[in-house]
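Example 338.
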Amino acid sequence: MRICNNLNTSICFNYKDIGITYCTLTNASNGKGWPKISDNVFDGEKINWTKFFEERSKEIEAIKNGCERHECKDCQQITDINFCDDRKIHYVLLSPWQICNSNCIYCLGHAEVISAKAPNYYEYYKEYEEPYDMLSIIKDMIANDVLAKDAEIDFAGGEPTLYPKFDEIINFFIDNSFKNIIIHTNNIQYSKAIERGIKENAISLMISIDAGTKKCHEKTKGVKSFDKVWHNFKKYSKARNKNYTMRLCTKYVLVPGINDSEKELEEFIKQSKKNGATQVALNVYNQLLNEMNYEEKLLNHLKQLADFWILKAKEKELPYILFPNIEYVYQKLEKQPF
Ligand SMILES: C[S@@+](CC[C@H](N)C(=O)[O-])C[C@H]1O[C@@H](n2cnc3c(N)ncnc32)[C@H](O)[C@@H]1O
Ligand code: SF4
Ligand code: SF4
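Predicted structure in complex with iron/sulfur cluster:
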């Protein structure tokens, strides 16, 4: 059966202009994302869950029958497996704003950089108006029993820890026994709710660090935050109990000309090990693969760096993951990772 597992299982709380959508992804083959769910399903305050699943079921049928909407054309997420609609949500992506306290050189997902020292920082919070009340919709989702008990809750952004109701939302999920929460963060802002989630084995962290030394971190992230990031990481790491089975993952996005040296990669692995990471991750920034026309020289450079990084992770006995962009580099060269 032709299905898209993302459509079948997910909901995305996106920022202002995008709103709430079924699909949490952008179709890599045409760059298209879904429009928000219809006014018929969401009146701006509440989601009518019966209508939500009815409309979803129509979209599922359309894909099954090969007459999907244009956003889904040629999407790699469409696969051929069996699927039975249980009328539940299994994956929630919370990406409610683009505001960030970092300015990563590779990131297209942040809109405004707000330094904690800037005079308008707290003013901004006062003035910020939520496009919709995300927490109240989440509460309603749980009250109506449409969120699967083992659902994955994924918080991204912008920088999620700056979201005014971040701790409240995370605490709400933990209070309601959700045990599969993942937070993508730059780790500049410490969160008591994250600390609690780590203590209670409910939270994984995916931390974008992207450098091994203070100097390069500043160049890549656009702000001075290296010491703070690792200080916070150590505190989270200490909060773990013996039975912690989730992930404290540090991530490195390679940007040629900025952080693509063996020295940086080696220092990153050393810092990760020293401060208690349980996993490391490697990626290349998304735009690069489109921009570089797959030049062999650059592909080989990336492969060499990735091989070196894997070697260093293995030496430190750190489990590692490669993101699809890196896997793609190996694929293009018809080589296997080191
Ligand atoms: C948009 S960020 C939001 C969460 C948080 N601010 C952070 O940095 O983790 C989510 C993840 O996307 C990654 N990311 C952002 N722009 C990217 C790009 N152009 N290519 C690859 N990864 C990117 C970041 O490194 C981060 O891990
Ligand atoms: S097919 Fe692709 S674009 Fe369509 S819903 Fe699935 S992931 Fe989204
Ligand atoms: S910290 Fe995250 S959201 Fe902010 S600029 Fe970097 S990647 Fe983008």
